[in-house]
Amino acid sequence: MILIDKLAYSSRLRRKSPALKVVFSVSSLLLCVAARSLPVSVCILAVMSVLTVKAGGIPLRRYGKLMAVPLGFLILSTVAVVFRLSAEPSAPFSIPLGARYLSVDSASLLYGLRLVLTAFASISCLYFLSLTTPLTDIFAVLRRAHCPELILELMFLVYRFLFVLLETGSAIQTSQRCRLGNRDKKTALHAAGLLLAMLLQLAFSRSSGIYDAMESRCYDGQIRVLSRTCRATAGETAAAALLLALFAAAAGFGRFYGGAL
């Protein structure tokens, strides 16, 4: 099992209603992206982090490492947005680059900060869902929402083969290390090519075997998995609705009275 799946099964919120968690996280994500406001992003980021770490019991160190995964992409995208090329040094901070200037002003800095916080708040909504709800429960919610069966089957098979390929790739890589397959750059590159080729071959072999096993068990075109039905209590529903109302109120306040924020 991958780390996110292990954390989802060990979360204290795992037994709560998956439908409520899906609606709450997706609604918060949509509000965050639609508002693009600093106060809204900070509120959503704080609430989702507290729910995931404090209520869900996810270790803070693990959560911090997961939140740091998209940090490099966000930094590169923010730098591209904050800095701009201009013909004249019109901004307070300008670096000459030949005939042009690399400039940054307060408006671009504020825009970059808003972009980063919006992205982090959106990621926290997705992490809240993925770290507190196993994927099989999410599949059950999507099936009740009449999601097309073909999409669900593709999602389930991709999810299943993630574990197969990760486990097989780890075993092959361990075997290569035992045989000093990465003693230098040339050997490591050759070993990586062999690893990818073997994974491709094993992927086709495993997929054929799984399909034969499904056919022998009377596969009729629909994958069925056991899922636990957990209903949300009135208090949980009211708390989720109150938080969404607060997010919406903050978004409305920021839109009409927040100015540049």
Folded structure, characterized:
By secondary structure, the chain is mainly α. It has 10 helices and 3 strands; from the N terminus they run αααααβββααααα. It has helices spanning 3-10, 18-35, 38-55, 60-68, 71-82, 106-132, 135-144, 149-178, 185-216, 234-257; strands at 84-86, 93-97, 100-104. Strands 1-3-2 form a 3-stranded antiparallel β-sheet. Strand 2 (93-97) and strand 3 (100-104) form a beta hairpin. Helix 2 packs antiparallel against helix 6, helix 7 (135-144) packs antiparallel against helix 8 (149-178) and helix 8 crosses helix 9. The longest helix has 32 residues, at 185-216. The chain is flat and about 70 Å long. The mean pLDDT is 82.
Silhouette: flat
Structural class by SSE content: mainly alpha
Put simply, the count of helices is: 10
* Percent in strands: under 5%
Low-confidence segments, given as residue ranges, are none
Largest sheet: 3 strands, antiparallel
Mean pLDDT: 82
Order of helices and strands: HHHHHEEEHHHHH
Q: Strand order across the biggest sheet?
A: 1-3-2
Helix content: over 70%
In brief, what are we looking at here?
The protein has 261 residues and is mainly α.
